[in-house]
TrEMBL record:
SMART domains: AAA (SM00382). The lineage of its organism: Bacteria, Pseudomonadati, Bacteroidota, Flavobacteriia, Flavobacteriales. Gene3D superfamilies: P-loop containing nucleotide triphosphate hydrolases (3.40.50.300). GO terms for molecular function: ATP binding; ATP hydrolysis activity. This is ABC-type Fe3+/spermidine/putrescine transport systems, ATPase components.
Length: 303
């Protein structure tokens, strides 16, 4: 179990992280979200033991995670960290990179394990390719597989699918998160992408102003977003009478007090996102058809 108690950290004088406390059970998936600069990457690095804390403690079971003041070599065997920049060995192949840290004394096991991980990150056809010739997204997948090679108990992932194209992203995400769950590996993932969270995370932590703004299951935070920051992570939203409503919760009706003028319509596949205006205030709602700018409409909250 990961226990983070009252963590405070600053690079220089001002704190980047304050009062951070949370737990994660073995096998749990915890998503860290927040705006750019809110401290997500810093939190992962601090959890990894890359920096010394100003205050607080981090434990993985009975081990306290300590920074460079206390450890000559950063990191622990039970924990792996996949950064946004991945430092791979460019002149050897994908499978050699992944197998690099596996024991040479058990060649069959090493081969089996390497192949298994290559399949998890869907790189089978590139197994014999030198890493230097791979695309950014392919390198990111090698870095993920390499971090999993020695079966960590906990893995810290910083934007793990940010370089992966949309064609691959969905299946890769399912494959990696399923592998982590099946193997009871605790996963702390920093992300901007709600698709990395919904359907996978057991807990979601929202960082804002150097602190944890909220912490709950993705379902609770999606259904009851208490702040615009949380709602904006999930999609377009509106604030009506101090309540937050997503675009799909509004509909066009024949008559209502919410009379607006359409300003834009955006094609979204199975619906259009319509932007409408009233006295300079903009609202967004989903509609099955496009609406012409200038169309007068009445909106209501769906029952
Ligand atoms: N090595 C560093 N030295 C000093 N300040 C830093 C360093 N790294 C990050 N910061 C600052 O710490 C704050 C948090 O940065 P961090 O990279 O953790 O944010 P983030 O939420 O991961 O952002 P992003 O989503 O853009 O990756 C920012 O204000 C950043 O400028």
């Amino acid at each position: 179990m990961l226990i983070v108690k009252n963590l405070k950290f600053s690079y220089k004088k001002t704190a980047v992280l304050k009062n951070i406390s949370f737990d994660a059970n073995q096998g749990e998936n915890v998503a860290i979200i927040g705006e750019s600069g809110s401290g997500k990457s810093t939190l992962l690095k601090v959890l990894y033991g890359e920096y010394d804390l100003d205050e607080g403690h981090i434990f993985w079971n009975d081990n306290e995670i300590l920074g460079p003041k206390f450890n000559l070599v950063v990191g622990y065997d039970f924990m792996k960290y996949v950064a946004q920049e991945f430092d791979l060995m460019p002149f050897i192949t994908v499978e050699e990179n992944i197998g690099k840290f596996l024991s040479r004394f058990y060649p069959e096991e090493k081969h089996r394990r390497t192949q298994e991980l290559i399949e998890v990150v869907e790189l089978t056809e590139f197994a014999k390719t030198k890493v230097k010739t791979l695309s950014g997204g392919q390198k990111q997948r090698v870095a993920l597989a390499r971090a999993l090679a020695k079966q960590p108990e906990i893995i810290l992932l910083d934007e793990p699918f940010s370089h992966i194209d949309n064609f691959k992203k969905q299946s890769l995400r399912r494959s990696v998160f399923k592998y982590l769950k099946d193997n009871h590996i605790t996963c702390i993932v920093a992300t901007h992408d709600k698709e990395d969270v919904l359907g996978y995370a057991d807990q979601m932590i929202v960082l804002n102003n150097n602190k944890i703004a909220v912490k709950d299951t993705p379902e609770q935070l999606y259904k009851h977003p208490k702040t615009p920051l949380v709602a904006s992570f999930f999609g377009e939203f509106n604030v009506i009478n101090n309540q937050i409503y997503y675009a799909h919760q509004l509909e066009v009706v024949n008559d209502s007090e919410l009379k607006m003028t359409v300003t834009n319509a955006y094609y979204k596949g199975h619906y259009f996102l319509i932007e409408a205006e009233l006295n300079g205030e903009h609202m967004f709602f989903e509609h099955p058809k496009s609406l012409k700018p200038g169309t007068e409409i009445c909106l209501a909250i769906k029952k």
